[in-house]
Amino acid sequence: MARMKFLCDAERCIECQACVTACKSEHEVPWGVNRRRVIVMDDGLPGEKSVSVACMHCSDAPCAAVCPVDCFYTTADGIVLHDKDLCIGCGYCFYACPFGAPQYPQQSAFGVRGKMDKCTFCAGGPETAHSEAEYVKYGANRIAEGKLPLCAEMCSTKALLAGDGDVVSDIYRQRVMRRGGRPQTWGWQAAYGNA
Amino acid sequence: MPYKAMLVALAVASLSLLTACEQEVVFHEPGVYKGKHDETATQEAAERRQEQLRERAMTGMTDR
Amino acid sequence: MSDSNVSKARQRRRRSMLWSLALILVLSIALPLGYALAQSGGQGVQQQQQQRFGQDRATNPRSDMWREAREGQGGFTTQTGPYVTNTMISNVGETWRQFRMGPLITYGGYLLIGALALVALVFTFVGRIKLAHGRAGMTIERWKPFERYLHWFTATTFIVLAITGLSLLFGRTVLIPVMGHQAFAAWADIGKVVHNYVGPAFSVAVLLMILMWVRHNMPKAVDLKWFAAGGGIFGKSHPSAGKFNGGEKVWFWVGIVVFGIMVSVSGFLLNFPLFGQTRADMALYQAIHAITSLLWIAFFFGHAYIGTLGTEGALEGMTTGRVDVNWAKQHHDLWYEDEIAKGVKPQQAEAPATGSVGTVGQPSH
User: Fold this and answer.
1) C or N: which end of chain A has fewer Cβ atoms within 10 Å?
2) Chain B residues near any Cβ of chain C (below 8 Å)
3) B1-9: long-range contacts (C-beta < 8 A, 24 or more apart)?
4) Based on the structure, what is the number of domains in chain C?
5) In this structure, are C32 and C161 located in the same domain?
6) Can you give the C-alpha Rg of chain B in angstroms?
């Protein structure tokens, strides 16, 4: 069985933030909620690298393990989804998640959290596919249409890969073989040396 | 003393309810969900789209 | 004779078998190792490998970046929002998950069940502490109205907070199999809101309680004697005590002061994520909050038992404010003597519901 995965090639990501924009636009994610974000390491220094991070759809997801109301579930091909009708906004998944994927719209004063929102791998949620309810709660369901997540599909440098783990790792392996395994044979070091 | 015996019996009975507890805390199994039905999550749906998504990845993600 | 010969032969066989096994094991380790050492000319292998590895790392700048990311060092992100973080990988989450789903839920559950079982055992085998000389029919004021209101306010909110809090911690194992997901989610949603709003009120009440009762709870030498005599629960003697006995002082200092302040402070920080708390902070506060609350609830079982079922004539002090004189003499003799010395006059008890009301023309209060 396939296992859906994201992979971001740090050698190719150019920090254009298009994945972030595409995600926000595709799912009409509200202000202050970011399903996907680009993190730049060593910003402004030699060796700067950026990686696009969202929910990584873990096999043994910590969010699902700590959820007090047990609202998470995994699709047969390994996409971690959750039920917003059950979510109580306790914030536990945010504490447990290594990638900072769970987000909460703030609904009222004192930092009271709304229902958790996170990357769905463009697979919607527990509502009828393509229904209004699904779109409002979870965003578009591209997977049901046979499409992969928009962030990866429209990545200009094909840095962000999404799909079955086998396929994605095949593509990435071929890529690494072609450009050579050592980063110094490709990229900044090859062009400018160890400056 | 029947009152005390009843109380103890009640305590034992209510504690024995705990034997109904799940030992396995991580409930989630791939494709198994106890709440509302999600068509996208089922094994059949995943199998149906598997080939389509593979083709999509091979055309969309590779360097053509 | 033949018997001993047979057993000797068997022993010899066994010994030789053991020795040959040991020899095989030693040789199977020593031979390949010796070969490798002979080939590489001794200690060189490891050093060479380390050197090569070191060189690789020195010339691979990317490995440093990934190492930093894995360690949880922050980067830069343009996205903004209350829950947007700039770290690629946060390591505290998995630790917290292991702690919460493992030891906390397991041992927390055992602790509560153990505390309940202990109370049940004490009740079964020691039983209720009776009034040694029956009721005197005269009562004396033990708790002022304000003390009683504060006590019952704290008690009710404590129980509400305990039930909602325990639902969140144990609900998935205990309640979901019984109630189902939808019903439990609705309950947990209400529970979370109630817990968050009742919590601050409870904290204020706990603080007031500390201020109100701290002067009665100063440890005295008589408390040690009280503990030595088993507090009157174990053994026949009735140790003397002031307004608060040794056990009540422990409940005050450990339960209300230490647990109360820890639970209140951690709860406040969890309730208001507005002071720049990181995920690591929140996980830590949650751990403190949960551990302390569980200990407090276990302790509370004892307090509630002693105050109601465990001691005859104790509960009426908190409900009506007045206790029987014989109860006061038996459990808090020093306090009773002080009150009498202060000129407090015991009054005739109100007639029990079955008897006639106002028989001997006692002053109504």
Assistant:
1) C
2) 4, 7-8, 11, 15, 18, 20-22, 25-27, 34-35
3) B4/C123, B4/C124, B4/C127, B7/C123, B8/C120, B8/C123, B8/C124
4) 2
5) no
6) 25
Check residue C56 and give its pLDDT: 47
Q: Are C301 and C159 in a shared domain?
A: yes
Q: Do B46 and A152 count as a contact with CB atoms less than 8 A apart?
A: no
Contact status, residue A69 vs residue C184, Cβ threshold 8 Å: yes
pLDDT tens-digit map of A50-96: 999 999 999 889 999 999 999 999 998 899 999 999 999 999 999 99
d(CA C315, CA C252): 18
Chain C nearest-CA distance from B12, in A, is 9
Place of tokens 């002979």: C38
Query: SS3 sequence, chain A?
Result: CCCEEEEECCCCCCCCCHHHHHHHHHHCCCCCCCCCEEEEECCCCCCCEEEEECCCCCCCCHHHHHCCCCCEEECCCCCEEECCCCCCCCCHHHHHCCCCCCECCECCCCCCECCCECCCCCECCCCCCCCHHHHHHHCCECHHHCCCCHHHHCCCCCCEEEEEHHHHHHHHHHHHHHHCCCHHHCCHHHHHCCC
Q: Name the residue type at position B16.
A: S
- Does the distance separating the beta carbons of A103 and C84 come in below 8 Å? yes
Domain boundaries, chain A: 4-180
Q: Least CB-CB distance to B40: which of A60, A75, A83?
A: A75
Give this complex's ipTM: 0.87
Cβ <8 Å between B21 and C177: yes
- pLDDT value for C125: 87
- Against chain C, the chains showing at least 3 CB pairs within 8 Å are A, B
Amino acid C48: pLDDT? 57
Q: Do A64 and B26 touch (CB under 8 A)?
A: yes
Residue numbers in A near B63 (CB within 8 A): 158, 175
- Please enumerate residues of C whose Cβ is less than 8 A from a Cβ of B: 101, 105, 113, 116-117, 120, 123-124, 127, 172-174, 176-178, 181-182
Share above pLDDT 70 across residues of chain A, in percent, rounded to a whole number: 89
Per the domain annotation, does C52 fall within a domain?
A: no
Separation of CA C310 from chain center: 22
In the block, which residue shows the tokens 């973080």? C85
The minimal CB distance from A103 to the residues C83, C188, C286 is found for: C83
- Taking the C-alpha atoms of residue A122 and residue A149, their distance in angstroms, rounded to an integer, is 5
**Token pair of A33, please?**
């909620």
Q: What would the mean pLDDT of A151-172 be, rounded to a whole number?
A: 94
Residue C15 belongs to domain spanning: 1-39
Low-confidence ranges of chain C (pLDDT < 50): 1, 55-57, 353-365
A4-180 is classed CATH 3.30.70.20:
yes
Band the pLDDT of A18: cuts 50, 70, 90. Answer: very high
In a domain, C353, yes or no: no
**Rounded distance between C-alpha atoms, residue A127 and residue A105, angstroms:** 20
Asked if residue C10 and residue C147 are part of one domain, the reply reads: no
Contacts A–B by Cβ distance under 8 A: 130
- Chain C residues touching B3 at Cβ < 8 A: none
